[in-house]
Protein: IPIL1 protein
Amino acid sequence: KADCIPSTAWLESYAVAEVKFFQHVARQVLCESLHLKCLQVFTCILRGRGFSSSTWKTVVMHMLTTVPLSRWRRREFVQRLWDIMAYLRRCLQVKRLEHFVLGNETLPGEISVPLAMGTVEPLNLFEHLARDPAAHAQAMRAYGQLRLRLWMLLS
Structure:
């Protein structure tokens, strides 16, 4: 019975659920939607500025559930970039960025995750900032530098 999988195992990773979420969003929005362009700006152009691509992906996914999808159009590109920055700032201030899949009870039904994963306490991806004041101060400085860099890029 070496090929049996315990009932606590989940054969798909969080990454699969995240991809399914982006596919779900893509089906809901117009072809000109810019949510992926926003993600590209933060993960590519602003790379190496103190925040991982995983952090940006998580922030954008949360933003996609709070800003109506009808407001992710090309003419609102700059505003969405600043909204993403504001969301990150709030997360940094409270030292809390919740994992998007784990503990998210509002995932679309087509994204199947084990039932227990939706009801657990969400994992705080910024827990290290709450425990380490120096890391939090560094993250706030990195945010300030990133905000300035984004302002310069958009000017």
About this structure: Confidence is low (pLDDT under 50) at residues 1-7. The CA atoms of residues 38 and 64 lie 11 Å apart.
